[in-house]
Each structure stands twice: as structure tokens, then as C-alpha cells.
Amino acid sequence: MKTPFNKYLYIGFLLLGIYQSAINKDYLQAASSFGIGLAFDPFNPEQKWNERPTWQKSALIFHLALAGAMLGFGIGLNDK
Fold first, then answer.
1. Which of 21, 53, 17 is nearest to 37 (CA)?
2. How many whole angstroms separate alpha carbon 9 and alpha carbon 65?
């Protein structure tokens, strides 16, 4: 699927995750939104991982780390 629609979905889920974490303070929902956003690769999804530029790899790994951090933060805050 080589359409710009992936970019819009990626940005939408990224913004939704930011909203859920910053405004609603619902970190588990933010983690799921960030994780779903990763399914919509904003770059060329047909390009192999090894052929991608380093900055694209770094952006996707950072996004994955952010989703993991939100998950850990949500679980840690709900541990009462």
C-alpha cells in the first residue's frame, strides 16, 4: 500500500496518543494508540528494513520506545 493515506493515519494515531497522554492522562490508551500508529508506516512500506536510511530507522525505533514507555508508565501508575 503505497499511498499517502498511511501518513495521515500514522500522524492521526500519533496525535491521538499525545492527546491521550497529555490531556486525558490515560497512558494505557496512549500506548495502544502509539502501537497502532506503528502499523501505518509513514515511509515507504515496500522498502526493506536494511535499505532504509538511518534516520528512518531511528524514528521508528524511537516511536516503538515511546509506546513501550507509555505502557510501562500506565502499568506503573495503576499499580496500587
1. 17
2. 19
Q: Are 14 and 37 in contact (CB under 8 A)?
A: yes
Output the pTM of the full model. Answer: 0.84
- Residue-level pLDDT, tens digit, the chain, 80 residues: 556 888 899 999 999 999 999 999 899 999 999 999 999 988 888 889 999 999 999 999 999 999 999 999 889 887 76
**C-alpha cell belonging to residue 32:** 495502544
Q: Which residues in 35-64 are b (16+ Cβ under 10 Å) and which e?
A: bbbbebbbbeeeeeeeebeeebeeebeebe
53: cell is: 536510511
